[in-house]
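Q: What does the predicted 3D structure of Phosphodiesterase look like?
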Amino acid sequence: MESEGLISQQEKRLIKQKLTIKEPTLMLLLSKQQEDTQIKSELLCYVSSLQMTRSKSHTQEFGSSKKQGQQFQSQTIQLMDQLIIQLKCMQQYPNHNITQEFKSKIEQLRIIFNSLDQDEEIDYSFIEQHQQNYQQIKQRYSRYMNSLLELMDEKVEPKDIQAFLNTFLNQLIGCQSYSFIILKDQKVQIHQEDKFEEFPINKDVIDELVNLQQITEVHSLNIIKQYYQTSNNFILKLTDFEYFVMQLDPNFMSFVILSNKYHYVDSLIELAQFVIYTSQQIKVQYFSILSIGDTILEFGLEIVRCSKYLLIENILQTINKQYQIHEIFENQSNVVTLKFKDSSSQYLFATNLDLKKQQDLLIYNTINQIYQRYQQFIKQCYERMQFYKYFLRSKNLFMIDFDKQGRLRFLSRALSQKIKTQFQIDKIQIDSTYKQIFTSNHQMLQNIENYISNIKWKLTQQDEDQNKQYEIFIRKEEKQFKGFTLILLENEWVRKKTQPPINGKTIRKQLLQTETMDYIKKLEEFNPDIRNSVVAMYMPQTQDFNPIAQQTQKTPTLVFRKIDKEQVVGKNSFFFKQREEERRFMKTNPNKFNESHLILKEEDNQLDTLEFNIHLIKSTIEKQRIVWSILERNNFNQIFALPQDKLINFLNEMETQYNMNNNPYHNFDHGVAVMQAVNCFMKSLTKKIDQQFFNNITKFCLLLSALCHDVAHTGKTNAYEANSLSQLAIRYHDKVILEQHHAATTIKILRDNQTNILCNFSDQDFRTFRKQLISNILSTDMQEHFKMLKEFESRIEQYGNDPEDLSLLCGMITHAADFNGTARKWPQSRLWSDKINQEYSAQYAEEGKKGYPQQPFMKDLDKLHVMSKNEIGFIKVIVRPLYCQLNLFGKGAFQICLDNLDETIFEWEKVYQQEMKALQQQGKPDLKWYIQQKAAQNVKERLYGYPSHLNQLPVQTQIKYSIPTEFVGCINDQDQKDVIKILKFTHLKWLAKNNSFALGYNKINNQKRQGHLSIFDLNDWKLFYKKFANDEAMVGILNQEYLNKVFGIGSNGGIYTIEKGQGGLEQRPVLETKISQITEGAFSPNHYKIAFSSQDKLIYLYDVQSEQKETLIGHGKEVYTVQWNPENSLIISGADDETIRLWDASSREEILNLKRHNLGVKKVRWNRNGSYFATTGKDKQTLLFDLRKLDTEIFKLHQNQVDTIFWHPKYQNIFLTGDANGSISCYNINAPTEPMYIQHVPETIVTDLALDSSGSMMSVIRAKQVQPDQKISMADQISIYKTA
């Protein structure tokens, strides 16, 4: 019947569905013994009845089931369906006569048509308005998941997450910026993006904030409004102590305003609390965006669900212009009702629509259809979210999702460099297409195209590949292509059968090692600076060899550091014998700790809290008494029968051993503080968890381990001990040197008869105690930190009575207590940090003096901005994650520590900001002096052939006589009819002699750029060129003026050269730097080094002699331009992140970081004596910076993007610029208000210009702007001018 045209494909599918469920009417019809003609006729009638039922139900979605208009519509549809069926039968069977019934139905239809108002005009503007509202809302919310793409970078900084939160809120609720208010410690704290303010709480503030009942405009509040000067700020009450302020987009305020009416304020509150929490957390810890990816998707989906109320409100406002609408709470008979219902809510609105009128019926059905479609859209968003969340949790799989236009829709996580290399992925950006992402991977593109073009979308080809590295999944709905998903794996899919593990502990250990290294790898990926911070001490030792780093280090002198006899501990040692006489008179010596000091005091209650401050105690005897008090308060002196005289001797010995080296940090104070912290932690755990983790001997061992964990500390790190080949390093084979030394010293003291407080232990008890004590002390080894953290994290949920679990928990508590100083209140924390940094600074100085390798993080710790930044990173990466895991295990037992850590991070951040601000305000003269000093240090570089310029160049005031303006001639693309090959001129450089200039251009062939370097001789008007090898594109020209030579820079790091008279053949590079994605290059003054900018956000320094490269940290986005100061080692760079950075190439330090442009920086150029530099940007501005005065001048004279800039070779006050509007402008920096426009050529782009060494000749590259319908995108020419 389908092939005969009697039924459609949809009707055929409907019959098959009914046949599958054995619908009684259909089964009865088919059971009759009839001819085919009769069966077909009855089937057509059956299909008609099904369609009538469906149509009827469809029109009843929103209203009452027995409305007059719907009955009228149903009757009309039924009558027309019956007539259509009879007409089909008459057409198929010509012998079938016209019946009276058919004539009767025709007459009924005529009467119906006549009853309609033939003069009624339908206003389709209402329908169009509804459709437009639907499309706008759907388009806004369909791409909320795409906002995650902003964070899919290998390095995500807090500012990137902050920017993402702003984008996320703007897209979902129209919030352009936000802030939050917290009532804390009797103060009102206002946290804004760029500032923090607080003021005391008073009654007026409480009345104003606490009594808020709904979303309120800030300007209606008397006190808070003075802190918000802009309009459209609304405040949302989260709790009595927390408030969220949103600056709403004037064009999209309705979503937030409607939240009260449609009761989704709770959804906004939860979203705001998540934003506040994330804003605070990014300041106190490093974390991957993947850790909150699930939450982002879920909050976004909840807002998308609520967005249907925005659609409902738009529908009501649109039809309310002509019809009466009011809300009702139950169905009413004989009233047209709009019903908006889902699984969680229902809203009914009565209207005076007349469904007998064609327009009203059309509006009614359109509303019905739009709402149902939007409900389906919400369902699809939910399904997509579930699909995406699976890959967000995956550790090994990368999912890239594309829509039906081939645009990137979602990326599960940032692609690693390994994946990019493996699949030849160039760059991923928002709205990139798969063709742009895989532009270099032709095989991948071909496979994707094959799958998309395959009609049936079967994956038979890849199923046969047993070693495939990716999967392609095509999405389709009702046989319509809806996009595809690409799933990548760093390594090939594993299909080999593996043997079951023989030893479970071995497998678990290997798994933990793998997870630990993965964790560290990710930590370094997102925070590459940590390798040069204090965190480096906590990294596990690896066998990686860095030859470059090895070359830069001094060869250490083999010095065996002697240890005094007093440091050698043993029963028969000189040290013990020397003290025998003192011990005899110890009881009567008031200056030594003795029995008379063994008393409990009222203030000892503070020993159970972190409020205790060891720094307030000046007496050594009192510190020893505190140790005794902790043991006494825990009743351990009685439980373990600790001999009083031996305990006194033990504490005296501990104090002596700790303080023998006068360490600022690792002294007896530190040991006592760690012991007291362990005492707090044990009590807090016992209080929070109704479970006894520790028996008495374990508690005693923990306390004693904490006290002794750093005894006899040398005040240096393990790295120093190993590098200096000390006696300790030799004794312990460079492994866990100091920790083994502390444990061994403790055991030796405990074995001495005079100080053996464990003398009443049995041999078995002592061995058990000794084993746990050593384990606890060794757990403070810094290089075991990450391994221990991951192992504890894996056991939190399954913690049991296993001895290994207990040992791990004791190690974690001891390790965390070792950082107790950082986890205390800010004043204490600051003091402990000062002390440890004193030790680090002293070690750094001694390492430098003796030629040992130095730790980078120990440098300049006497400078507050350096130390504060170091402390922030240390807490975020090391300390806070440790306490987080313990707090999770202890169900909040360590929350006070986390609060203190967060406060400390904020305080260090304040210190850092204050120091940087002070340096900027007070340090301008110092900065200028510093730059001048750096120039003086590198004066030797000017002795290698480069002509040294005078400090002051001549100044020209008559600009019109200084600039070439008289046209000489031009060089064109001679074959502009050739569509396949187009010449694209890129760069110009004049040679110092011979009246010629170098020209760089690319020949474009099938979207590939083939670089060429050429020399144009003005004497005989000839062009000599050489083609780059390896399909490299031309990206820049280097000029050696004193040698009269030029070098071309290839995009993949090849350096090419050409001389006059040469050319024609493809040329191999004279130097291969192996640096890819280059955007520009510049010689150092002595031409021994080249600075490169690149698309991968980095700046490279390449040494031509050693052929080694070094990397500067770079920018946040693609670096467009880099230039070397002509007089010294200063480098200037500009990037798409709008920043201009000044570097010292000799020390690799950043000197200045400027953000003066509103869009990306296109070019930076020094003047000839290096005293000024000028920059141009996409924001049409030209910026001038004076290094001597350290101020800026901004020129806003271009009408379009500025692409090039060139300083006059003779006069230090003149420079020229060219823009995308075809204009060349000349500036006199001494008279910025009087520019001279040389010329303006419409429909052209000035991409580069250059003057010769005398300033009398100028060449200009102009790219002609061609209309979009033309085949050739650009036709370039080079114009040549001379002075008049």
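A (community wiki): The structure tokens above were generated from the sequence. The CA atoms of residues 1205 and 1217 lie 4 Å apart. The chain has a mean pLDDT of 78.
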